[in-house]
Model the fold of this input.
Amino acid sequence: MKTDKTFRFTVQIPATTSENCKVGDFLESLKNKKARFIVSVVSEYLDAHPELLNHASIVVRTQPSITEAAILAMIERALAQQPRTSAAVPMDDKEDFAKSMLADIQSLL
Done:
């Protein structure tokens, strides 16, 4: 919002990912220099992408800090470290179990 000769914004960054926490902590460390830093960074970005100044559509793409494949690999390693039981578990059951665990983990994120 622009008031007189000042632009005022409120930005809330949820502390739900390591990326958000890293940025939030960094901005917090800037104290009263946040505005100058943000203007500098956004200006540099706009210089690199002048089409945005013509009200071009903006698409923000994010990617999780950990991929589904990485989570499945961690689960499979954890399963491989479990002591063997007397009954062998079929591979299909392990994959279903790993996918179930992945779904549970994703619901927490």
Summary: Strands lie at 2-3, 6-7.
